[in-house]
Every structure is written in structure tokens, then in C-alpha cells.
Amino acid sequence: MRQVFILVVSVILILRITSLHAEPIAIVGGTIIDGNGGEPISNGVIVIDKGKIIIVGDKKTSIPSSARKIDASGKYIIPGLMDANVHLYLMPSLESVVRYEGRYEEVITQASQLALKNGITTVFDTWGPREPLANVRNDINVGAKQGSRIYLAGNIV
User: Fold this and answer.
1) What percent of the chain has pLDDT over 90?
2) Which of 65, 84, 149, 152 could form a Cys-Cys staple with 122, CB 3.0–4.6 A?
3) Which is it for strands 45-49 and 25-28: parallel, antiparallel or unpaired?
4) Please, are residues 108 and 89 in contact by the beta-carbon 8 Å criterion?
5) For residue 19, what pLDDT is reported?
6) How far is CA 12 from CA 39, 50, 51, 83, in A?
7) Do 65 and 105 touch, CB atoms closer than 8 A?
8) Eight-state DSSP code of residue 137
9) Three-state DSSP class for 21?
10) Would you tell me how many other CB atoms lie within 10 Å of the CB of residue 89?
């Protein structure tokens, strides 16, 4: 299971990195699960160019000669996972409010990165300090920070 999560995160990071580089990347040899109920593709191929997935197929799929190949043999490639009820910064006590005062964005960033490292590419924060959550979300959206995509409600109570 850990291999699946690591590969999901790797694909996400590769998508972000390749959007900055001209060289296409081909992830080869892994088992691709499309998330739509289709049959898994053994020995699959994913070609990424300029931050976009352009080809998904089996071992017969044509790979551009300029592509850098990443071997995913023995691993599974799945779509990113979502968690619809997270609290990237939950303040359960007055002590934690005081302890992390002025550092909410740092804590939220770390929580978002931890989610991403576990294959959760999108989170929905249903309660928390709105401004720090929005600031971290915006930094992630423009590529200034790495982390799961954040949708937020803020403190709704």
C-alpha cells in the first residue's frame, strides 16, 4: 500500500516539475488503475509532457525518444485520493492555540504535505483558521509550496 501512495505522490511531483521542463517523462512498467472501474493495465505506460498526462496505455504504447524513463515495475499507479473532512489545524485546547500562535501557516503546510506524502492529493478542511488556511492554499496553488490541494470552509461554527 505504501508503494501506491509513494507512486501517486511521485506522479504529482513529476507533473509539477515537468511543467517547468521541456523534456517529456515516461513512467513505465507499473500497474495502472484508472479509478473508473476499468481493468488494471499491467506493464503500463504514462507519458507526461509540460505538466500534462498526454498518453496512458500498455507496453505497446509509443514513447517519445526524448522522454526520460522512470521504472515503476512492481508498483501500482492510481489517481490521487481525496479526504473530504480534514482539519489541517485543529485547536483542541487553549494550550495549543497559544503554543502555535503566529505559526498556523507552518502547521497547516506540514499537515498538507503529510497528507500528500500519503497519497491524498486533495483535502477539504471543514473547520479551521480561515486566513492561514487560505494563505497556504494560495501558496500551493501558485507552486510556492508543495502540499495537497486545499478546499476550505474556515471556522463555520
Assistant:
1) 69
2) 149
3) antiparallel
4) yes
5) 52
6) 22, 13, 9, 16
7) no
8) H
9) coil
10) 24
118: which 3 cell numbers? 500519503
Cα distance between residue 56 and residue 52, in whole Å:
11
Three cell numbers at 117?
506524502
Instruction: For 71-89, write each residue's pLDDT tens digit.
Output: 999 999 999 999 999 999 9
In the block, cell 504535505 appears at: 113
Whether residue 17 has pLDDT greater than 70: no
User: Quick one: pLDDT at residue 154?
Assistant: 83
For the stretch 109-121, pLDDT in tens is 999 999 999 999 9
Q: How many other β-carbons are positioned within 10 Å of the β-carbon of residue 58?
A: 11
Please indicate, yes or no, whether the overall pTM of this predicted structure exceeds 0.90.
Answer: no
- The 8-class DSSP code of residue 90 comes to -
DSSP state of 7: H
Residue whose C-alpha cell is 506540514: 110
Round to whole Å and give the CA distance between 74 and 85. 32
Question: Contact at 8 Å (CB) between 83 and 123?
Answer: yes
Residue 110: count of CB within 10 angstroms of its CB: 15
pLDDT band at 51 (very low <50, low <70, confident <90, very high): confident
- The 3-state DSSP composition of the chain as helix, strand, coil percent (nearest 5) reads 30, 25, 45
